[in-house]
Design brief:
Length: about 80
């Protein structure tokens, strides 16, 4: 990845993180990634539009939600241990 692409992706993340924090969301992590920057947040009080992927590992269900936002992907998980 070139320095210019890296700088551009970091700027996208920073801008999106500021807007998400201003909206009251809690940021868990950020990743520059090879294709699109990713921001992981705590589960929002109001669910956003996006895509949902449900996986099962043993008896644990894990739901990953993904939504595009400001040139990034925003993800959050929902766990159901039952």
């Amino acid at each position: 990845m070139t320095q210019a692409k890296l700088t551009s992706r970091v700027n996208l993340i920073n801008h999106a993180v500021r807007k998400l924090q201003k909206a009251g969301l809690v940021i868990r992590s950020t990743r520059v990634g090879n294709i699109r920057p990713t921001i992981e947040i705590e589960r929002p009080a109001n669910l956003c539009q996006g895509f949902t992927v449900i996986t099962r590992q043993g008896s644990d269900l894990s739901t990953l939600n993904v939504a595009p936002y400001g040139g990034c992907l925003v993800t959050w998980r929902v766990y159901d241990n039952g």
